[in-house]
From TrEMBL:
One of its GO terms (molecular function) is glycosyltransferase activity. It comes from Bifidobacterium pullorum subsp. gallinarum. It comes from the Bacteria. Residues 8-132 form the Nicotinate phosphoribosyltransferase N-terminal domain. SUPFAM superfamilies: Nicotinate/Quinolinate PRTase C-terminal domain-like (SSF51690), Nicotinate/Quinolinate PRTase N-terminal domain-like (SSF54675). Transiently phosphorylated on a His residue during the reaction cycle. Phosphorylation strongly increases the affinity for substrates and increases the rate of nicotinate D-ribonucleotide production. Dephosphorylation regenerates the low-affinity form of the enzyme, leading to product release. It catalyses: 5-phospho-alpha-D-ribose 1-diphosphate + nicotinate + ATP + H2O = nicotinate beta-D-ribonucleotide + ADP + phosphate + diphosphate. Belongs to the NAPRTase family. The keyword Metal-binding does not apply. This is Nicotinate phosphoribosyltransferase.
Length: 440
């Protein structure tokens, strides 16, 4: 991956605002920013949080080197005084929010960033870039996993998006319930299960399909998965079992009527004695195609394009808004936009979820001053949704790395099970639980 600073993965106006704020003195005002979405993608019942761990990884490297500073200076994006400030920059604020794998809804305070205006404003674009994409992929992945029932789903979407987002998508897919990825860099960086065997070109480069199968088995063993739809599926399955024997690990089907073909292949494999050979299907699958395959004898799925594009919702429309700031007298003051259709709720937030008969029935967002929120007591049984990720510049490593990803993977299943069963419907509908906002 290209060597770059996350501090440059931003919009120019973050730096021009910083420059102006340093000159007028407001850069040092304490502020609270909040990331939320005003609405879920049309028809979706819930969203899944993903990307927080990547934010923390990026925050560790969020500084500018000499070349970056020279670029900002040469382009006259910021003044010499701001360059000097940036040379010493280190995020010293605090970040809290919803953990990865948690469900979110309209107006859920998914992430809250507290610090000076100068340091908080620099994070805006990067945080939104990560959360908007990763949450979209994890949300789509969760719907697909629901549709697949107990059959594992694997990420095979790297070639359907750009090379950087492919890595992010692999990680987000696992948070969303997937079991592995074809992307080796994602597997290397995050300790994910890597999957993959051969493409059609491997069969085509050999003089016969039998030669290709023999070569693959010699290299990968009898437990490998052979791609059987390059020519004639029935002949390929017959050849595969002849070459590998009944110990053949699996076959993959990548075209045609997948349900009908899987049924025929299953019957053929059983007739040939390969009763333990698994069937994997691929080919532009989405949650609706997976639901249609529930009765087919398929053992696992490889999902590509629809996964990495959020299955039609490639962004969660999340925004980063200032909700509280220090005024000229040094007193923290709630602030809000009043723009038509874009109004915001002033003040920092608490977030809880209430339950009835062990099922979530409402998302509760409580807004107020720091003192008001400290004195607030939620009702019995409400779950606190906010966790601390960064405390005065100190990152909690609990939320980073492979173990954090797998914990998020497990937590998503738990959190989804706590929602009403309609959350798992693929039919279009409203968010499965309402969000109630209270301003203290």
């Amino acid at each position: 991956m290209v060597d770059y600073s996350p501090a440059m993965m931003t919009d120019m106006y973050e730096y021009t605002m910083l420059d102006a704020a340093l000159k007028d003195g407001t850069a040092n005002r304490k502020c609270v920013f909040e990331i939320f979405t005003r609405h879920l993608p049309e028809g979706r019942r819930y969203g899944v949080v993903a990307g927080t761990g990547r934010i923390l990884d990026a925050l560790e490297r969020f500084h500018l080197d000499d070349d970056d500073l020279r670029f900002l200076s040469d382009r006259k994006i910021v003044s010499a005084e701001t360059i000097a400030w940036l040379e010493r920059f280190h995020f010293s604020g605090s970040i809290k929010g919803y953990r990865e794998g948690e469900m979110f809804f309209p107006n859920s305070p998914v992430l809250q960033v507290e610090g000076t205006f100068g340091e908080c404003t620099l994070l805006e674009t990067l945080l939104l870039s990560i959360l908007n994409y990763d949450c979209a992929v994890a949300s789509a992945a969760s719907r697909m996993v629901t549709a697949a029932k107990d059959r594992p789903c694997m990420d095979m979407g790297g070639r359907r998006t750009n090379e950087w987002s492919a890595v992010a998508a692999s990680r987000a897919a696992v948070v969303g319930g997937f079991q592995g990825t074809a992307n080796l860099l994602a597997a290397q960086l995050y300790g994910l299960k890597a999957i993959g065997t051969a493409a059609h070109c491997f069969t085509l480069v050999h003089d016969s399909e039998r030669d290709a199968f023999i070569s693959q088995i010699d290299a990968l063993g009898r437990n490998t998965t052979l791609l059987v739809d390059t020519y004639n599926i029935e002949e390929a399955v017959k050849t595969a079992v002849e070459v590998a024997g009944p110990e053949l690990g699996g076959v993959r089907i990548d075209s045609g009527d997948l349900a009908a073909l899987a049924q025929r292949v299953r019957n053929q494999l059983d007739a040939l004695g390969a009763t333990n050979t698994k069937i994997t299907v691929t080919n532009d699958l989405d949650e609706y195609a997976l639901a249609a395959l529930q009765t087919a004898p398929v053992d696992s799925y490889g999902v590509g394009t629809r996964l990495v594009t959020g299955s039609g919702a490639p962004t969660c429309a999340m925004v980063y808004k200032l909700t509280e700031r220090e005024n000229a007298d040094g007193v923290m003051q709630p602030v809000a936009k009043k723009s038509k259709d874009k109004a915001t709720v002033p003040g920092r937030k608490l977030a809880f979820r209430s339950y009835e008969y062990n099922l979530a029935d409402c998302e509760h967002v409580i807004s107020g001053s720091e003192d008001q929120l400290a004195a607030f007591r939620p009702e019995e049984g409400w779950k606190d949704l906010l966790v601390d990720f960064v405390d005065h510049g100190q990152i909690d490593a609990t939320w980073q790395g492979h173990d954090a990803i797998m914990a998020a993977h497990d937590y998503r299943a738990q959190a989804l099970a706590e929602l009403p069963i309609t959350a798992q419907s693929l039919m279009r509908g409203e968010p499965v639980i309402p969000t109630e906002t209270t301003v203290l």
